[in-house]
Amino acid sequence: MRALTALNARETPLAVATICAGVAFLVANDAVAKLLTDRYAPIQIVFMRNLLAVPIITAVILVALGPASLRTWHFSLHALRGALMVTGAWLYFTALIYLPLAEATALVFSAPIFITALSVPLLGEHVGWRRWSAVLLGFVGVIVIVRPGSATFQLAALLPVGTALCYAIFMISARWIDRSERFWTMMLFAMLFPMIYAAPFAMAHWTPVQAGDIALFVAIAVFGSLGLALIGQAFRMAPAAIVAPFDYTALIWATGLGWLIWGDVPMTWTILGAAIIVTSGIIIILREAGKDR
Predict the structure, then answer these.
(1) pLDDT of residue 134
(2) Maximum Cα–Cα distance for the chain, whole Å?
(3) CB atoms within 10 A of CB 7
(4) Does residue 1 form part of some domain?
């Protein structure tokens, strides 16, 4: 037992560094995608990212795990999760056309709120009053950022909330997949099906890819794949209650990149709402950790 505790103690700092790196890659993915929205339709960006990511992930599986890991026994469920993934990505990339990166990122962090709320009807879980209070607090944070009825309100602010809802159902549906299925296999199908779904819509809105943008499309494929892989690895290295709060470091990266690239300075309402959403998410994470003990 002491040896196991010592091992966990040694791996915890590495797990934290791993999730922070993964989050940074995902924010970089979002920033590059926002640059591309000036010239390409969001659905084309989704298609191109996945078209390039699928061969990368397939190569990793073949080299590291072998051809057997390309097989799944949950084909229909992966098809459903792919629909959620492509819808969420399309909503988010569309939001990036109209919203600053930090604001869009903050609103996506309402996902833990939806996960908690939907765990009751979809997983049959019991949610106590403390977690329901955290859910309500999180929705207050969303309202603070969106501010419906105010002079600065725009419908585009609801798009990242839709992304968060899709992501929440996507994450919940992972509980329906047998634990023997490897992470990389799940990741492959999470990229493959959205690519298939996006293809006809991308063709309908196709803009010829400029030579100078090929590197940007490759970047979002690599950044997105690395980000998901590192975050998944972090959750395998240390308890979720330890690593999950560091997911919120995305707000720091999003704010910094938004300022460096576009000169965006978050409004006071965005900072306040983000703080409320983060507080809500951390409360939910801590309650989950307490429930598991």
Answers:
(1) 87
(2) 60
(3) 10
(4) no
Measured CA to CA, the distance from residue 100 to residue 257 in angstroms comes to 10
Residue 105's alpha-carbon distances to 34, 48, 196, 211, in angstroms, are 12, 22, 26, 29
Question: Does some domain include residue 121?
Answer: yes
- What is the distance between the terminal CA atoms of the chain, rounded to a whole angstrom? 17
Report the percent of the chain where pLDDT is more than 70.
93
Tell me how far CA of residue 253 lies from CA of 65, 189, 259, 261, in angstroms.
33, 28, 10, 12
Residue 2 covered by a domain: no
CB atoms within 10 A of CB 290: 10
Per-residue pLDDT tens for 175-202?
888 878 888 899 999 999 999 999 999 9
What token pair was written down for 269? 């309402």
Give the mean model confidence (pLDDT) for residues 63-85: 93
Amino acid found at 240: A
How many domains does the chain fold into?
1
Q: Is residue 29 part of a domain?
A: yes
Torsion sign over Cα 229, 234, 236, 239: negative
* Alpha-carbon distances, residue 291 vs 122, 127, 137, 177, 260 (angstroms): 18, 10, 20, 22, 41
Say what the pTM is. 0.88
Q: What is the pLDDT of residue 5?
A: 45
Alpha carbon 210 to chain centroid, angstroms: 28
Q: How far apart are CA 255 and CA 109, in angstroms?
A: 14
127 dihedral zone (left: phi>0; alpha: psi -120 to 50; beta): beta
Mean of pLDDT values over 93-112 = 92
Residue 15 sits in which domain range?
11-292
